[in-house]
Amino acid sequence: MKLRSAIHLASAALALAMLASGAPAGAADKVDPAADAKAFRKFFTDKFPKVKLDDFVNGPYSMNEDLHKQWEEKEQFPPYEFSLEMGKEMFSKPFKNGKSYEDCFPNKGIGIRQNYPYFDEKEGKVITLELALNRCREANGEPPFSYVRDEMAALTAYMAFTSRGKPFDIKIPNDPRALEAYQNGKEYFYTRRGQLNFSCATCHVQSPGERIRAEVLAPALGIMNAMPIYRSEWSGMGTTSRRFTTCNSQIRGVPLSPQDDEYRNVEYYLSYVSNGLPISGPGARP
Amino acid sequence: MRNMMQKSALMLALLAAGAVPTLAAGSEDDFKAAYAAAEAANKEAGSLRNQWTTTAATLAAAKKSADAGDFDKATASAKEAEALAKASIFQATSEKTRWKDLEIR
């Protein structure tokens, strides 16, 4: 009798536990990028109901009216203009073998920024624009550029400029490896690291619009759309790779190498959840 | 935001401090043993893709003190570096599941 009561009690407790946890085991771990993107957008539009959806791509300038005015003035003589000119010139200059960047990209590389990064099913990995540019150089006998220096920033600035206004259109093919890359990118985004115990989300989900020292933090929604950026703090241009590595070192974490899988995956995740928002790069930031 | 930073830093500082044993006067051998333990822990953090810049800086400080012949200071720094590396390992391990707490759903 006692044993039967105990079994009943245990069964009831188990049922309650399952009810409390909601969905059955396994369902909670299902990767659903479309649902993620919807929830992501809702989070930010609920948090900042006065900000127009397309304005999130302007980062800290979308969070503060005074900063927005400063940005509008800055855009009259944008600080990234020199980089843009340099990128245009570099992009059209043929390699030593007579070919050029045009030969490596669809539509000769014009107006395609919104499709990067993409998942390469042949390779089974995420390909970012920066990576594709260096692969193009190497395939044509040219040395790769540093991922964090001016040349790469100039090239990506020009390519972003030719896509301005086009909505991000990142695809996740029906391939378990693509879903895994997306999920790994999401995990990286939310994982705390460094001695300060910060994740990307600590600043860009929990605290956008607030200050960290003198900086106003940008929302994660639309954060990739403005890349590459001119940062007054850097007195120069910065690539996506530069942004990720400096974020890591600022929280006292040792950065990984630019274009390591983790960075490629987090760029994939962040770009996907900003699908539909316009490319605004190159951007300028305080 | 500042509160959050302070709390996070404090939590990890406490974690690191708790792992540091009472320091005794150190010889060159003590230093070598402490340094090897710190390097091993930092290597493990590296395999988890989660090294801290402060661990590297503290390891460098330990080496500098040892080169100058101050083995007490060098051993103390090496032990501090080991504690930092162990904290980074703890962080990487616990975040394997904890990251989901922050996720937008």
Fold topology:
The complex is a heterodimer of chains A (286) and B (105).
Chain A (H helix, E strand, L loop, with lengths): L1 H20 L11 H15 L17 H10 L6 H12 L25 E3 L4 E3 L1 H11 L10 H12 L14 H15 L9 H5 L6 E2 L2 E2 L12 E3 L4 E3 L1 H11 L10 H12 L10 E3 L1
Parallel strand pairs in A: 5-7
Antiparallel strand pairs in A: 1-2, 3-4, 5-6
Helix pairs in contact in A: 4-6, 7-10
Chain B lengths: L1 H18 L8 H20 L5 H15 L3 H28 L7
Helix pairs in contact in B: 1-4, 2-3, 2-4, 3-4
Structure description:
The complex is a heterodimer of chains A (286) and B (105). Chain A contains ten helices and seven strands. With 286 residues, chain A is mostly helical. Chain A has one domain: Cytochrome c-like domain (Cytochrome Bc1 Complex, Chain D, domain 2), CATH 1.10.760.10. In chain A, the strands form three sheets. In chain A, strands 6-5-7 form a three-stranded mixed sheet. Chain A has a two-stranded antiparallel sheet with strand order 1-2. A two-stranded antiparallel sheet of chain A has the order 3-4. The N and C termini of chain A lie far apart (73 Å). Chain B has 105 residues and is an all-alpha fold. In chain B, 77% of the residues lie in helices and 0% in strands. Chain B is elongated, with a radius of gyration of 15 Å. The interface between A and B is medium-sized, with 31 and 28 residues.
